[in-house]
């Protein structure tokens, strides 16, 4: 979590310790375990230390739409901080270590640190931006563009906490999960990956992905990583940041 948050702002020792306090009571969950269900009481967040998770909603016809993929360092449930019910269910993808964070504990962080308050706001804003991109994917990109954009996004997110990836990463998502993210059938997803391989853009072997031509994949996706969050105003002195916001 500390490394993830440092992407948004430089943190001093006290701020790092405050974040460590959020991960003092780890809980181990396994693939297929449910963290919480849509419609249940929302009284806590969760911080992912290891492993992957995802949020989803079930449609009236029984189909599943996957909304978020959570990686180590991510905070689950930020969008529901101001609600009393979970807006989506969360399930574990692979063996996962996480820490539950009651809302009252987050309030204490806000009370003690102005900078961490702004970072949490930046993280929540980034998650919202990712949902907007997901909407664009579903509504306006074709099948290859959807998958290309998702792969670019996952590569960028993983690269921020993993050095020297060289275009290779593990993607522990089933064909059906990828279909439920993209709004496509599992068969269509398989065909698109075959096309990407033929075009020498991406190789995929089960849960292993190798982006052979990142420039080409970015062009196919129309991918721009700015929506994934940058330091920018977070790193400016307070008065300069206020002036910059007013100017915009």
From TrEMBL:
PROSITE patterns: HTH_CRP_2. The keyword Transcription regulation applies. The keyword DNA-binding applies. Keywords: DNA-binding, Transcription, Transcription regulation. GO terms for molecular function: DNA binding; DNA-binding transcription factor activity. Pfam families: cNMP_binding, HTH_Crp_2. GO terms for cellular component: cytosol. Signal peptide: none annotated. Residues 141-215 form the HTH crp-type domain. It comes from the Bacteria. SUPFAM superfamilies: cAMP-binding domain-like, Winged helix' DNA-binding domain. InterPro entries: cNMP-bd_dom, cNMP-bd_dom_sf, Env_Response_Regulators, HTH_CRP, RmlC-like_jellyroll, WH-like_DNA-bd_sf, WH_DNA-bd_sf. This is Crp/Fnr family transcriptional regulator.
């Amino acid at each position: 979590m500390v490394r993830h948050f440092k992407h948004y702002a430089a943190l001093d020792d006290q701020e790092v310790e405050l974040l460590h306090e959020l991960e003092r009571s780890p809980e181990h969950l396994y693939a297929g375990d449910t963290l919480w269900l849509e419609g249940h009481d929302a009284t806590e967040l969760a911080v992912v230390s290891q492993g992957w998770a995802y949020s989803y909603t079930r449609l009236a016809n029984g189909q599943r739409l996957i909304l978020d993929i959570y990686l180590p360092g991510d905070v689950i449930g930020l969008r529901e901080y101001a609600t009393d019910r979970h807006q989506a269910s969360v399930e574990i993808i692979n063996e996962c270590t996480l820490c539950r964070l009651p809302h009252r504990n987050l309030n204490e962080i806000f009370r003690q640190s102005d900078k961490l308050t702004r970072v949490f706001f930046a993280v929540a804003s980034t998650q919202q931006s990712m949902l907007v991109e997901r909407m664009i994917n579903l509504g306006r990109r074709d099948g290859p563009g959807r998958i290309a954009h998702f792969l670019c996004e996952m590569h960028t997110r993983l690269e921020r906490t993993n050095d020297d990836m060289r275009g290779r990463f593990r993607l522990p998502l089933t064909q059906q999960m990828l279909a439920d993210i993209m709004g496509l059938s599992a068969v269509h997803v398989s065909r698109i990956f075959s096309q990407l391989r033929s075009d020498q853009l991406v190789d995929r072997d089960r849960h292993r992905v190798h982006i052979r031509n990142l420039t080409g994949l970015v062009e196919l996706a129309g991918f721009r990583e700015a929506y994934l969050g940058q330091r920018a105003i977070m790193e400016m002195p307070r008065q300069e940041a206020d002036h910059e916001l007013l100017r915009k």
